[in-house]
Amino acid sequence: MHATLIAENYAGMLSQGRGLLERAGFSWDFQPVNFKKNSSFSSLKFRLGADPLKYVNPLTVKAESDFLVSIGGKGAIIGKALGSICKLPVIQIQNPRISLKNFALVIANHHDKLKGENVFAIRTALHGVTDQALLQARHKWFSRLIGGESKILGVLLGGSNGRYVFGEKEAVFIAHQIQAFITAHNMSCIITPSRRTDPRALNRMEKILTPYNVRILKGEGEDNPYLGILACSDCLAVTEDSVSMISEAIATRLPVGILPLSGQSSRLKYFINILKTENRVTSFGVNMKINHTEKLDDTPLAVEEIKRRIFLLRKSLA
User: Fold this and answer.
1) What is the pLDDT of residues 190-209, one digit of tens each?
2) Torsion of Cα atoms, 51 then 54 then 59 then 60, to 10°
3) Which residues contact 135 (CB under 8 A, 6 or more apart)?
4) What angle do CA 41, 244, 56 make, to 5 degrees?
5) What are the start-end ranges of the H helices in the chain?
């Protein structure tokens, strides 16, 4: 089967859609939602009957598409409109923030607290971090990342968003936490930032940590060390702003510590508390245990549900 993926062109959204579809064994193409310059799109206008497609650059649904997958609030609105035109079912990832009745299936996290017959709730974000992907990444990155006898702390950094602030003050605090941890455990450290990481914050961390055998890798594209760090580290630390990065970290068997930022989000707090209850994450600190544990990954559950729903839908149309 073939799916058309409809979402804004953000790495986290694309990672979720790609992870779900590839692990389900479906072919897919990506149609990014790009709003026209100076467009005045709003969900309110959509609710009042405006055509949302006139606010975005043209999107193409291939003839071989069996269904659409939309992601996020704006992706949901555009996906719903395209699904109506193309007469194709739409599967929504994340809270659509519009009526759930517009979708054949809504895959959302427990912290979204959605309820409905077409809602399938999971603990983690969708992703493509599998044992096979980690093994391939380890083969590719081992010689480049493992430089000595010491164990490695891998650090995944996010950035400021609508709920959290990651500026220079937070960077200094995190850097001192990392320094204390790797000193106490005689470890080295590899850090990778995201596109949201403030360069000034990263520079402050680099100045503090360079004397302590810490490397900051900023590679992009094929040279992005992200999967390599997941595959080659002995333990992980992740900033608390990203459901996607935390979900990918706990899909390994490594201990995962959460790095605090300024600000708060009730949704993110709920998400992290679920993982703490599952004994899968803990607050980062020198007392964090570095023993390997069981991975936690709900993507396979979503894969089975999407296949079941599509089977039922095709059967009803036969």
Assistant:
1) 999 999 999 999 999 999 99
2) 70
3) 231
4) 20
5) 11-24, 43-47, 72-86, 131-145, 168-185, 199-209, 226-232, 243-249, 266-277, 299-317
Looking only at the bridges linking them, the beta strands covering 262-263 and 164-165 are antiparallel
Among 204, 214, 222, 284, CA closest to 249: 284
End-to-end CA, the chain: 16
Q: For residues 174 and 62, give the distance between their C-alpha atoms in angstroms, rounded to a whole number.
A: 46
The pLDDT tens digits of the residues spanning 143-158 come to: 988 877 689 999 999 9
Q: pTM of this prediction?
A: 0.91
How far from 199 is each of 7, 36, 193, 205, CA to CA, in Å?
27, 29, 9, 10
Q: For residue 256, what are its two tokens?
A: 């995962």
pLDDT exceeds 90 at position 315: no
pLDDT of amino acid 117: 93
Q: Helix, strand or coil for residue 197?
A: coil
Average pLDDT of span 60-76:
94
8 A C-beta contact, residue 205 and residue 171:
yes
From 106, 112, 105, 108, select the one nearest 121 (Cα to Cα). Answer: 108
| 213-219 contacts, C-beta under 8 A, 24 or more apart | 213/150, 213/182, 213/188, 213/189, 214/178, 214/182, 214/188, 214/189, 214/190, 215/188, 215/189, 215/190, 215/191, 216/190, 216/191, 216/192, 217/190, 217/191, 217/192, 218/192, 218/193, 219/192
Question: Which residues does 278 contact at the CB level (< 8 Å), separation at least 6?
Answer: 123, 296
Distance CA 169, CA 166 (A): 8
| Per-residue confidence (pLDDT) for residue 218, from 0 to 100 | 85
- Residue 14's nearest CA partner among 88, 76, 72 is 72
